[in-house]
Amino acid sequence: MNDYARIEKAMAYMVANAADQPCLDAVAAQVHLSAYHFQRIFCRYAGISPKRFLQALTLERGKQLIASAESLDTTAHSLGLSGSSRLYDHFVQLEAVTPGEFKRQGEGVDITYGVHPTPFSEVLVAMTPRGICRMAFVAAGHQASLLEQLGKQWPRSTLNHRPEATRYVVDALFLKTAKTQPETTPHILPLHVSGTNFQIAVWRALLTIPDGHLASYSQIAQALGMPKASRAVGNAVGANPVALWIPCHRVIQQSGALGGYRWGIETKQQVQAWEAAQHSPLLAGCS
């Protein structure tokens, strides 16, 4: 079992047993390590301690919803269908597939892909020359089926297995030192996605939700100026083609319930707790 797999198994155990608040020894035993070695591995790859992760699991999501509302409201005026809106953190840049590109179905486009471990299971990352076009948890479906889906979306493209070219996409999320990105990470992380105008608008709205915060489907609809479109927003969120970087995991129900997630509710809860612990001043760190 590799270190990422150990973290994934430990997180799943803590999610399932959060109400019992399992001690460090109990969690370490699940991955057959001493408490000392497990603590070091978890901190190294997750950036937080097991204790902080467990604490984040018990936070009230409703409070995070309230904190997110103002952020969404202040960016509502810049959201639209033109593709010209500025993004919240200026690091992720989303570009939609043009009508011409869609018509050509990827003709002449080389798509590079690779599969990489994360604390939440392996992910498949695929990139066109213009940016990331797909990022999906392999645990939600076999790699072959994910590649088949990619081929159907870009039927005339050429797929090239080059994990060394896509690794930085995952490293930028999980190998942070002193909150800086790895040297191999570009200044801008480009996304190159295909969707309807409404879907693109929703995905842009998701990028305005700050790290460690949450928003409801109705808040997204309000920010887009379509207060009655919560259900349509939910469908667009569920169609997100780029896991983690387009943060559909930050959207929950107005009641505070988790809502759905195309890669599984357990994974959604793990990612939310990981982000909350990373960005909360009360929870951050490896103590």
TrEMBL record:
Give the species this sequence originates from.
Answer: Halomonas llamarensis
Which keywords fit this entry according to its UniProt record? DNA damage, DNA repair, Methyltransferase, Transcription, Transcription regulation, Transferase
Q: What is its EC number?
A: 2.1.1.63
Report the residue ranges that make up the HTH araC/xylS-type domain in this protein. Answer: 8-105
User: Alphabetically, which GO biological process terms does the record hold?
Assistant: methylation
Q: Does the keyword Acetylation apply?
A: no
MF terms from GO for this chain are: methylated-DNA-[protein]-cysteine S-methyltransferase activity
Signal sequence interval, chain numbering: none
Annotated Pfam families: DNA_binding_1, HTH_18
- Name of the featured protein: Methylated-DNA--[protein]-cysteine S-methyltransferase
List, alphabetically, the PANTHER family matched: METHYLATED-DNA--PROTEIN-CYSTEINE METHYLTRANSFERASE
NCBIfam families named among the record's database cross-references: ogt (TIGR00589)
PROSITE patterns linked? HTH_ARAC_FAMILY_2 (PS01124), MGMT (PS00374)
Q: Which domain of life is it from?
A: Bacteria
Q: Which InterPro entries does its entry note?
A: Homeodomain-like_sf (IPR009057), HTH_AraC (IPR018060), MethylDNA_cys_MeTrfase_AS (IPR001497), MethylDNA_cys_MeTrfase_DNA-bd (IPR014048), MethylDNA_cys_MeTrfase_DNAb (IPR036217), MGMT_N_sf (IPR036631), WH-like_DNA-bd_sf (IPR036388)
Q: Which reaction does it catalyse?
A: a 6-O-methyl-2'-deoxyguanosine in DNA + L-cysteinyl-[protein] = S-methyl-L-cysteinyl-[protein] + a 2'-deoxyguanosine in DNA; a 4-O-methyl-thymidine in DNA + L-cysteinyl-[protein] = a thymidine in DNA + S-methyl-L-cysteinyl-[protein]
